[in-house]
């Protein structure tokens, strides 16, 4: 009996010594990870692992972290498959709580990106460089859902965007958003996306709303777009030197992509154009409905040397794929003393329209 107790005491002391050693090792690694030397060592270990999954390479100037709640990356540069700079950020900051992993949840309370730059271009093989940053991997034979809930409380980013091509695009973007993910559900809330373009024309856009994806189903939630543009900016694109005035575009969209409703309003220098559409954004051959109305449009306010007068119309259309029917409720034109009124219907497809019950009156 005494020998057994002695053996148990020895085993207990050995177990306690092992636990103490592991705790000491864990504390030492934790403290080293929080030191500047340890953080640089951590960066030198992680970068080769990440770069093996990329077609180009990732460079990071410095890493700062307390491991459990904060991570900061400075001077981040991502190169594409042809070793051209594709993405750059002066500062990427993350605030999180790793302790929530015990409850199968990852909380990112803040993601902050400043000094961002994105350069999109075509590779020599025709692919978009941003779509070819990661090396392709075979899909898993038996994919399992990720049993982890990811919540991103706030994403803030300031980015300069450049797209090369026959019509180059230059823009400055400011993003504020949040997201939640629990496989297979994804929810994104866009508080604001402000876009200021400088090429090919100067314009201002603001977008907000939400997107929800559950497996194969995707829905838009109160998506709203507001854009302003001076008509003179369209002159180079349209090769039209007679445009003038300000254009204000507002678009709202909601509903599943299989039956999304889109309302559009274009405020002209004088007059308003509205367009209400319901369509299946995933199937161009599905049924669709459109209603449009133009009220108080004065061509002379938008086009230099255009005749004085007004144009009004009201029409609706419905169909399936390329075939449908246009119902012209009203077309009223009054320009320089000439008046034209028309109404009726046109049906058929895009190649062979058929005028039906159409009347016109010229005065």
Q: Which class of secondary structure composition applies to the elements?
A: alpha+beta
Number of helices: 4
Strand content: over 45%
Low-confidence stretches: 16-33
- The rounded Rg comes to 30 Å
Number of strands: 17
Q: What's the mean pLDDT score?
A: 83
Distance between the ends: 121 Å
Largest sheet: 17 strands, mixed
Shape: elongated
Please give the oligomerization state of what you see. Answer: single chain
Order of helices and strands: HHEEEEEEEEEHEEEEHEEEE
Helical fraction: 10-25%
Give me the secondary-structure topology.
Elements: H1 2-34, H2 36-51, E1 57-65, E2 70-79, E3 85-97, E4 105-120, E5 149-163, E6 169-182, E7 185-199, E8 203-214, E9 217-230, H3 235-238, E10 246-256, E11 260-267, E12 272-279, E13 287-297, H4 299-302, E14 309-320, E15 323-335, E16 338-349, E17 353-362
Parallel strand pairs: 4-5
Antiparallel strand pairs: 1-2, 2-3, 3-4, 5-6, 6-7, 7-8, 8-9, 9-10, 10-11, 11-12, 12-13, 13-14, 14-15, 15-16, 16-17
Helix pairs in contact: 1-2
